[in-house]
Amino acid sequence: MDGALESVYRADRGRVLARLIGILGDFDLAEEALADAWAAAAASWPAAGVPDNPAGWLVTTARRKAVDRLRSETASRRRQRAWGELAITWDLGDGSDPIPDDRLRLIFTCCHPALSLEAQVALTLRSLGGLTTEEVAKAFLISPSAMAQRVVRAKRKIREASIAYRVPSPDELAGRLGAVLAVLYLIFNAGYLPPSGTELVNVDLCDEALRLCGVVVELLPDEPEPLALAAMMRFQDARRQARLDDDGVPVTLEDQDRSRWDGKGVAAGLALLERAQDMGREGPYGIKASIAALHVAAPRSDLTDWAAIVRLYDRLLAWEPTTVVRLNRAVAVAMADSPAAGLALLDDPELAQGLTGYHLYAATRADLLRRSGRLDEAVVWYGRARDQTDNVAEHRFLDKRLEQLAASVPGAN
Amino acid sequence: MRYMLIIHNDPELHPTPGSPEWDQLMADYGEFSKQLVDRGHTFTGDPLNDPSTATTIRVRDGETLTVDGPFAETKEWMSGYYVVDFDSLDHALAAAAMVPSAKYGSVEVRPLAEM
User: Fold this and answer.
1) For A46-50, A72-76, A134-138, which range has the lowest pLDDT when averaged over its residues?
2) How far away is chain A from the Cα of B23, in angstroms, using its nearest Cα?
3) DSSP string of A44-56?
4) Nearest CA to A294 among A237, A348, A253?
5) I need a surface site. Which of A22, A151, A245, B109 has the fewest CB within 10 A?
């Protein structure tokens, strides 16, 4: 694709599509019309030049294309369109006016809790992220046809069940925003810690999540939680380079070479977190970002303020009383107090049962046993953790730990 | 758009007639219906008798088969419904959350397939 066209596509596609869905009231029709308009742009822009307002040009052209499509469709097919042709006979203008930003409506619709979480992720990445169904399928390790089916089903539900294309009212906003942020963080983590495969970090999804979170920050500038999520992702992202050693084996936070952290990324994260904190309304992402900030602020791992981290986890539990948060809190207690204190928390039957089969529970237990000098038991739990994950990079890490233990425990293998 | 709010209940968890909880529940249903009216929604809705009173009909090859039941394996059964006109799914979901039995069982929200 032509360079100028490519950059317009990257910069404006989400905004143009969001506007078209708003006008046409139909995901599929909007996507088809945008594809038509894009083909028209590819045919005419190289000779005529890129228009002054490419987004406006694309919206106007796509509206015309949508009218053409609706005219040529049969009545029965037309009836399947959500709002039909009501809106699109309006005066089209010449495409020189700036287009209203409908991306917030689009993101809240894509992340509607009436859709499955997988569908929310797929719709968000396809419509606002500009990824193809194939790319989304690849990132989430499912077949393109299964992913396509998921998307078709979600779009059908939006249409048939009348999921409104709107930003939630102020009294709904907190809950619905939480759903949007959860989707963005899931996308980020899918890039950061893919469930299997040889690469630990899938760079594209992390970048995509950061970019989408930036859009939410820009569109909801008075909300602290999107800022806090952006900060948290920046902190995690800044450690990307240090997370693997030269052999591709993951390095724990404790052992990472902190000089390899991206200082600019950390500074950007701290600035975002400060903006969030200045708003004075604490939420779960604000607390998580504060925890991450304490990690990146420590010049050496043994200078980490673990006691403060334990206190933050206590506050987080009020928002999210989940077993995973309790697991993380147990690690912080182990570091602040003693490995035995952490192990005592992991012994809680409810926690142990709730996290059965979760490789990070086994790996955490193994690590605290190792720190307590209970090496035989540590070997057993590292082995369990290894059985519970398919990620090749995680395997390398766990194998390395097992080798180290084998060297110090006679007879263990 | 019209939606059906389908109320499912587990009778073991649901208040039984004669208990104070039941009286409260009936009062809450009265209030719920009043809310729908006050907000200008047109609706229909009724409670259903329990599945032991049900009869199922199938017509196969012109012959009518009548059986007692069904007696589903699941503990929950459909105990009532509303059909209400709402602007969008969000409004239907907000109303479903106010159905008094939602505290005990579940409320399934389904758009009617308008022909």
Assistant:
1) A72-76
2) 31
3) HHHHH---SSHHH
4) A253
5) A245
- Say yes or no for a CB contact (<8 Å) between B89 and A114: yes
Chain A residues whose CB is inside 8 A of the B113 CB are 160
- Residue reference for tokens 């109320």: B7
Contacts of B96 in chain A (CB under 8 A): none
Burial A227-247 (b: 16+ CB within 10 A, else e): bbbbbbbbbbbbbbebbbeee
Which chain B positions have a beta carbon within 8 Å of A166's beta carbon?
88
Torsion (CA) A321, A324, A325, A330 in degrees, nearest 10? 120
Question: Two tokens at A22?
Answer: 């708003």
Nearest Cα of chain B lies from the Cα of A9 at a distance, in angstroms, of 32
Among A163, A168, A172, select the one facing B89 at the smallest CB separation: A163
Closest Cβ–Cβ partner in B89, B109, B111 for A164:
B89
CB contact under 8 A, A114 and B111: no
Cα angle, residue B103 at apex, residues B97 and B104 outer, rounded to 5°: 135
Q: Please check the confidence at residue A412 and state whether its pLDDT lies above 70.
A: no
Query: Rounded mean pLDDT of A116-145?
Result: 85
B window 65-94, beta carbon within 8 A of A: 86-90, 93
A162·B111 Cβ contact <8 A: yes
Residues 90-109 of B with CB under 8 A from A: 90, 93, 109
How far B91 CA sits from the closest chain A CA (Å)? 10
The residue extents of the domains of chain A are: 3-89
Quick one: average pLDDT of A238-266? 88
Q: What is the pLDDT of residue A4?
A: 78
Query: Computed over its alpha carbons, how large is the radius of gyration of chain B?
Result: 16
pTM for the full predicted model: 0.81
The percentage of chain B sitting over the pLDDT mark of 70, rounded to a whole number, equals 98
Residue A94: burial class (beta carbons within 10 Å; 0-12, 13-18, 19+): exposed
CA distance B8 to chain A (A): 18
pLDDT reported for residue A87: 44
The percentage of residues in chain A with a pLDDT greater than 90, rounded to a whole number, is: 55
A162 and B1 in contact by Cβ < 8 A?
Answer: yes
pLDDT given for residue A83 in this prediction: 46
Query: How close A161 comes to chain B (CA, Å)?
Result: 5
Interface ipTM: 0.80
- Domain count for chain B: 1
- Quick one: pLDDT band at residue A345, thresholds 50, 70, 90? very high
Gap between the Cα atoms of A323 and A341, Å rounded: 17
CATH code of B92's domain: 3.30.70.1060
Q: What is the rounded CA–CA span in Å between residue A34 and residue A36?
A: 5
Domain that holds residue B71: 2-111
Residue A106 pLDDT > 60, yes or no? yes
Average pLDDT over residues B10-33: 92
**Interval A3-22 mean pLDDT:** 87
